[in-house]
Design brief:
alpha+beta, globular, 144 residues, single chain, Nuclear Transport Factor 2, Chain: A
Length: 144
């Protein structure tokens, strides 16, 4: 019993010493899905369709040529019913080669300010993370 107590005490001292030594361990940063989400939505807010299109996953690019995407993105913005000026990413969770991001698009100057919550699926490929457009993108007006 005394041996077990001494052993446990020694293990605690080793753990204490390890915890107090060296630099703090940095938390792992995201692999790029949040950054891709931000680039996509900020480009949409600025009406920079080419830059937003560049962030699409290759499956969405195959389904939507640039001119079709631009028309849908313009309609998406119009359907908001307000002029968004800020993107807030509420969460972005990666699960292997897929990620789900939840964003809020916010207006400024309105009293009260207006916002719209949206979600987006991303997939990772050899070229990085890309936004996968939902079939309803630009086609369905957001619910108030």
């Amino acid at each position: 019993m005394a041996c077990d107590h001494a052993k446990s005490s020694a293990q605690l001292h080793v753990l204490d010493a390890l915890a107090g030594c060296g630099a703090a361990v940095a938390l792992p940063e995201g692999t790029g899905s949040e950054e891709a989400t931000r680039r996509f939505f900020e480009a949409v807010l600025r009406k920079e369709w080419v830059q937003a299109y560049e962030v699409l996953h290759h499956d969405s690019k195959r389904e939507y040529p640039p001119h079709r995407f631009a028309a849908l993105a313009e309609q998406y913005r119009s359907n908001l019913g307000f002029e968004p000026v800020e993107v807030r990413i509420r969460s972005c969770q990666e699960h292997g080669s897929e990620a789900t991001a939840h964003v809020v698009l916010v207006s400024r100057g309105d009293s009260p300010s207006r916002s719209y919550k949206d979600g987006v699926l991303l997939r990772r490929s050899d070229s990085g993370w890309g936004v996968v457009l939902q079939r309803t993108f630009g086609r369905v007006a957001p619910k108030s």
